[in-house]
Structures are given as structure tokens and as C-alpha cells.
């Protein structure tokens, strides 16, 4: 390597290291540490979340700024999307779960002191989420119905958000379904279950149940009702919530209505009553199978979407004088591979194996766990003996979904412990070297930018780090 290049690289490294070390010398008081890893991780999750709630949110309506700079104490004027908003709900709920586990393990001190406080924060967040709600009428593959769902962007009043066309997407609803179910599990509040099932009905209304020439369902869920392309992110995230719903209703007599198309004439819209337990498990398997068939690559990880769709945009057709959405066939598998698209399928495999005991899900998950870590984790890129994950775009949040997949699959594949440890080590490295005003930098292994004005940090990344810490705490207690 040329000497000039070595000097330049050394200067660049110093640029970041100086800024990082400065973070701990600007009057920052570091909290006392706990030698127990599970306890320490939960402490850090709570600390980051508490600081982030104050930094990113404002007003009684819980308006979330997309960015916050701890060095300038400035919130961005740009408001976070509903997806970004959901990250705060995830962090709070994950902490509540971890507090419960800590209590179950014999220490109820923090549960008694903090659980109700986080429950109140959770209710405030869900109340604020209603600013993203809106109502529209949708014609799907089996009928026309009015729906009240979550729009991408926040409205000016509760229920006043735009949700027509491309203004709502199915994956946003899926992340909310997940968090509604997590909230139900940790609070027992039946309203959360009701909201989760309503949104689940909306998402499954987007399943392409049209019949191909061989008499099979075309399958797949488009990114949103205003799109033709079928994405990993609008399919994989739904598998685990559907399995959880199956478990909640297993052995009960509750019924659901399945809407489908006659495989014989490929035209007639039909419906049948099923037990909810069977209904939810049926679609968990359908969605899992579609994504595996359509998007699993030869190197063992998942591509991003199916494109090359016909028609290229949502179209309607008339059958017996009634409008329905036309079948959408997509032929081109499109990348890149992104961590969360493998992470959701890893969690899905774990959940499906747990309830079915079908060895194929264990085999799928084992292969995916190993392939995904080999593909996404790069050792020694930034710090010797630490694994670097791509953090471009929104990948900091995506990476947390992969980590959760490893945690979910660990009971079936204990070698995943080494993969999980990489995330623990990165978080701890950032906390111990770069922690500043209660927050972590976007790049956990490099740190803050020396130019203080360039440290705008995505709220969803901050809450993702907190949620990861909470999940890791729970994992250490229960593995």
C-alpha cells in the first residue's frame, strides 16, 4: 500500500476515533455496570429507550421526529413514517417482555418499579399511532370492502391519514400486527388482539388467490394494494404472527371466513367457515411456501422481490358484472439480499417447526441460519474479531430482524449462539466506547462523526438497538 494512502486512511480512522473518545469526555457520566449479561443488557435497553422517547417524541399526540442529533440537541422537522414509529413500540414491548422474564427468574425489583411505567408509554404510543389511521375502499381478488388501516405517513388528525392507493403498504400493517400481538401477550389487553386480527384480515385479503392454468393459486402478497410487485417484506413478516394466532386459538371453537376462488372454473368466488386455528396456520404455511419457492437463492439467502409483473400495475376485471382485482403474475426475482428478508423467514421456520414438528422447517431454518451469517457478517472489517454488517440505507433496522431470527431459531440450532453473540458484542462495543447522551451512533463499530452537525441519527435505529438489547436480555435468561 502506498505511504500516502496509509496516511490518508490513518487520518480518516483518527477522524472517527477522536470523535468517539470525545463522546465519553464531554461531561458524560457513565452509569454503573452489572456483571450479569442479561441484567446489563436490559439496563441498557431501558436507558436507550427512555432517552430516545424524550429525544424523538414531542406533544401529547406523540409526534415522532425521524432524526435527532445528540450533539446539537436538534430534532428534525421531518416526521417518521408509521414503520419508523413502530420501532418505538417494539422497543417498549420488548422491554416489558424482558422485565417479565427477569421477574420469573426470581428478581421482581425492576418489574415492580418499571413495568407499569412502560405499559403507560405503550398505551401512549398506540394512541399516537391513530394519527396514521385512515379509511378507504379496496377492490381485491374476492370482493370490495371498506378498510381502516395505517398509512405510510402521519395525518393531521386521528383517523385522518391518507391510505388509498400507494399511501398504505401491507408490510407496515404486518409489523403492527406483530407488535399488537406482542402487546396482547405482555398485557392481556384484548383490544390488542382484536386490532391484530382486523389487520390480519386486511393483509390476507391481499393474498393473490387467483388460479393459474394448472389449477393452483398464483399466491403472494403485493407490497401494497397500489402495487403489482410481490416483495419478501410483504410476505415473510406475516408468517410468525399467523402462527401465534394459530396458537392462541388452538383448541377453541372460534371461526374465520376463508375467501377463495373455485379451482375448477377459475372464476367463481367462494367462501367457507374454518376454525381460526386452522385458518391462521393454513395461511402461515401458504405464505412461507410461496416466499421459499419464489425468492430463495442458490446461496441460501432470500432476494428482495418478484418483479416483471403482468399486469405491471393493479388492474380490475369484471366477472358476472362484479369487479375484482385481476391476477398478477411476476416472473423476475430481484435482489439484493437484505438481512430482514432472511430474518423473517428464519423466525417463521422456528415458529412453524414449533407448532407442526415438521422436520422440513428445522432443516430450512438450519440452512438459512448458517447461510445468512456467512453471507451478511464480515469479520474484521472495522474492528479486529468483530463482525460488520452492512448499515447502508435502513439496514441497521433490518439487521435487528435477522438477530431476532437467530434468537427465535436458537432452540432448534444452538450453533446460532455464535451468531447472536456477534450482535451482543457490537452493541456492547458501541455502548462502552461511543455512548453519548443516552444514545448510540449509527455505526456501532466506528462511532460518531467528528463534525457534530453530521450526527443526525434515525429514531428507528436507536429504538432498534434498544429492542435488540431487550431481546438479548431475554435470550440470556432463557437459553
Automatic annotation (TrEMBL):
Signal peptide: 1-19
InterPro entries per record: 6-hairpin_glycosidase_sf, Glyco_hydro_76, MUG_Protein
Name of a matching Pfam family: Glyco_hydro_76
A GO molecular-function annotation: hydrolase activity
Keyword Hydrolase annotated: yes
PROSITE patterns attached to this UniProt entry: PROKAR_LIPOPROTEIN
UniProt KW keywords: Hydrolase, Signal
PANTHER family: (PUTATIVE SECRETED PROTEIN)-RELATED, MEIOTICALLY UP-REGULATED GENE 191 PROTEIN
Name of the molecule in the record: Glycoside hydrolase family 76 protein
Organism: Sphingobacterium bambusae
Amino acid at each position: 500500500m502506498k505511504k500516502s494512502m496509509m496516511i490518508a486512511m490513518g487520518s480518516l480512522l483518527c477522524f472517527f476515533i477522536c470523535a468517539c473518545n470525545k463522546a465519553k469526555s464531554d461531561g458524560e457520566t457513565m452509569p454503573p455496570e452489572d456483571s450479569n449479561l442479561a441484567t446489563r443488557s436490559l439496563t441498557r435497553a431501558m436507558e436507550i429507550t427512555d432517552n430516545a422517547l424524550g429525544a424523538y417524541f414531542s406533544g401529547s399526540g406523540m409526534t415522532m421526529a425521524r432524526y435527532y442529533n445528540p450533539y446539537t440537541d436538534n430534532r428534525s422537522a421531518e416526521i417518521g413514517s408509521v414503520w419508523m414509529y413502530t420501532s418505538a413500540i417494539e422497543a417498549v414491548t420488548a422491554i416489558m417482555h424482558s422485565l417479565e422474564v427477569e421477574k420469573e427468574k426470581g428478581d421482581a425489583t425492576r418489574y415492580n418499579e418499571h413495568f407499569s411505567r412502560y405499559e403507560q408509554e405503550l398505551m401512549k404510543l398506540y394512541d399516537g399511532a391513530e394519527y396514521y389511521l385512515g379509511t378507504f375502499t379496496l377492490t381485491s381478488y374476492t370482493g370490495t370492502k371498506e378498510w381502516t388501516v395505517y398509512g405510510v405517513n402521519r395525518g393531521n388528525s386521528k383517523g385522518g391519514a391518507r391510505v388509498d392507493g400507494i399511501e398504505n403498504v401491507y408490510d407496515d400493517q404486518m409489523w403492527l400486527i406483530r407488535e399488537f400481538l406482542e402487546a396482547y401477550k405482555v398485557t392481556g389487553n384484548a383490544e390488542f388482539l382484536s386490532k391484530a386480527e382486523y389487520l390480519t384480515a386486511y393483509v390476507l385479503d391481499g393474498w393473490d388467490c387467483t388460479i393459474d392454468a394448472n389449477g393452483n393459486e398464483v399466491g403472494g402478497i403485493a407490497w401494497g394494494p397500489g402495487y403489482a410487485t410481490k416483495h419478501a417484506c410483504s410476505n415473510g413478516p406475516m408468517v410468525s404472527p399467523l402462527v401465534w394466532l394459530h396458537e392462541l386459538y388452538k383448541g377453541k371453537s372460534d371461526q374465520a371466513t376463508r375467501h377463495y376462488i373455485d379451482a375448477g372454473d377459475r372464476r367463481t368466488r367462494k367462501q367457507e367457515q374454518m376454525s381460526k386455528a386452522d385458518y391462521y396456520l393454513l395461511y402461515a404455511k401458504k405464505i412461507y411456501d410461496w416466499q421459499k419457492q419464489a425468492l430463495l437463492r442458490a446461496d441460501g439467502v432470500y432476494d428482495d422481490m418478484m418483479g416483471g409483473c403482468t399486469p405491471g400495475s393493479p388492474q380490475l376485471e369484471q366477472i358476472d358484472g362484479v369487479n375484482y382485482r385481476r391476477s398478477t403474475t411476476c416472473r423476475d426475482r430481484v435482489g439484493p439480499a437484505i438481512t430482514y428478508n432472511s430474518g423473517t423467514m428464519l423466525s417463521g421456520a422456528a415458529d412453524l417447526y414449533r407448532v407442526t414438528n415438521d422436520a422440513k422447517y428445522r432443516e430450512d431454518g438450519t440452512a438459512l441460519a448458517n447461510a445468512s451469517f456467512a453471507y451478511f457478517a464480515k469479520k474484521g472489517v472495522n474492528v479486529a474479531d468483530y463482525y460488520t454488517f452492512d448499515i447502508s440505507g435502513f439496514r441497521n433496522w433490518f439487521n435487528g430482524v435477522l438477530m431476532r431470527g437467530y434468537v427465535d431459531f436458537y432452540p432448534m440450532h444452538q450453533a446460532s449462539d455464535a451468531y447472536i453473540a456477534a450482535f451482543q458484542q457490537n452493541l456492547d462495543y458501541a455502548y462502552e466506547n461511543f455512548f453519548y447522551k443516552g444514545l448510540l451512533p449509527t455505526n456501532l463499530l466506528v462511532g460518531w462523526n467528528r463534525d457534530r452537525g453530521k450526527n443526525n441519527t434515525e429514531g428507528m435505529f436507536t429504538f432498534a438497538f434498544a429492542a435488540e438489547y431487550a431481546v438479548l436480555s431475554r435470550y440470556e435468561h432463557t437459553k
